[in-house]
Amino acid sequence: MHGKKLILILTNNMTGPDVIKFNNCKTVIIDGSYEKATEALLHTLYWGPYYITVNEGSEIWAHESIMVKLKPATTLKQLERLANKNSVEMMGAHKEGYMKEWYYLACTNQSKGNSLIMANLLYESGLFEEAMPNFILTTINRR
Length: 143
What we know:
Blueprint: E1 2-5, E2 26-29, H1 34-41, E3 50-52, E4 58-70, H2 76-85, E5 89-93, E6 102-106, H3 115-124, E7 128-139
């Protein structure tokens, strides 16, 4: 097991009501089975699946954050209700630039699923033009 300090990028310039929960988080990668990690997971805010690609030698981790773009008829209140119903945290929104009107949400261990599951659930609600989880992709150094 090794750890890396990671100040989450998504908390930069975010002003949503739940941002404070994610400030100064640390990321730890536990290599092994879920059963071996259960003790450590009791002390986590979020854990997500971690995949290793076979052919490309990359690792993919389902980050806790989700980005959604509301349909024109969807209100912020509808997004807040859906987030509350599924225990997903409201992080904030971009107010300018090419990501204007994109809202950031974050999963925790209390959410109804990880970020991939929750992004699919949000999209299938019909309220969003797009809903996608954030993934972290790294290259494996093989010797």
